[in-house]
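Quick check before the chapter quiz. The format below is the same one you will see on the exam, so make sure you can read both the input and the output lines.
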Amino acid sequence: MADASGIVYMRTTRGAYPTIYGPNEAFKIGGSKVVRQSPKDRVTLIGAGVTLHNCLTAADTLAQKKISARVIDLYSVKPVDVKTLREAARATKGRFVIVEDHYPEGGLGAAVLEAFAAEDSLHVAHLAVKGLPTSGKPEELMNAAGISARHIVAAATKLLAGK
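Here is the expected output.
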């Protein structure tokens, strides 16, 4: 970020979450990380920060149901990694579950939908905070907002059922 020209923004996560990347991992502006994938992926789970952890947990639960899920860390929203998103859309027939821990406007969902605006090939479940925040433990708040791993599993299952 220090070497980037123009305005940059970094959002950090509170709380103790498992470390996913090593200290030498590079994060280029406009990039993303595919943290889980297989040739049998049927749905793509997209998160960033705390919701990436929820997506990984949801992918584990889906795997127990014999449903393979691709997981993308869409850490850069502007610009968004259109190439990786298009590859995921091809692999999973456009089935995306996008999860963000804030209001739906102007975040991950908006960036993904904007990248595919000229197409009608996506089938999207967009999980985001839609009500006023309250106090509680992180897992309680994510459950209340509908963005926890169990909500991601339910959204992915519903997409795969064509509902």
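If your answer matched, good. The CA atoms of residues 36 and 71 lie 5 Å apart.
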